[in-house]
Amino acid sequence: MNNEKGKNDKVSIAKDIREREEIINKYYSTGILDRQPAIEKIQKLRLTDEQVAAATTVRLTISSVPFDKVTDEGIISELKMQVGILTAKLTVSSSQKAAL
Fold first, then answer.
1. Per-residue model confidence as pLDDT tens digits over 19-70
2. What's the CA gap between 4 and 42, in Å, rounded?
3. With 0-12 CB in 10 A as exposed, 13-18 as middle and 19+ as buried, what is 33?
4. Is residue 27 a contact partner of residue 72, using CB atoms and an 8 Å limit?
5. What is the phi/psi pair of residue 67, to 5°?
6. Contact at 8 Å (CB) between 72 and 35?
7. How far apart are CA 44 and CA 47, in angstroms?
8. How far is residue 31's CA from residue 88's CA, in Å, rounded to a whole number?
9. What long-range pairs does 19-27 form, CB within 8 A, spacing at least 24?
């Protein structure tokens, strides 16, 4: 059962990465950011992922701007940070499985 949970976690992480990369790539290719779905993804992951929450807390102690005031580049930067954290989690998960 634990193996199934690990598999589901990796699928979920990969989905989160893909969704964020799609938003980022669309922004860089068209210059258009659909802000509300991007903000919702950021907020959801901040609430559900401990590592993202910790990294966000550190960033917010330095600078905190409400989402309605942040630039598109600021939102993209946050999405990139989340992709980096998720990618690291996926890599660690795969490495741990390979070590077993």
1. 999 999 999 999 999 999 999 999 999 999 999 999 888 777 666 788 889 9
2. 26
3. buried
4. yes
5. -60, -30
6. yes
7. 5
8. 27
9. 20/79, 20/80, 20/82, 20/83, 20/86, 21/83, 23/76, 23/79, 24/76, 24/79, 24/80, 24/83, 27/72, 27/76
CB atoms within 10 A of CB 6: 13
Contact 89, 13 (CB under 8 A): yes
pTM for this predicted structure: 0.83
Cα 52 from Cα 94, distance rounded (Å): 19
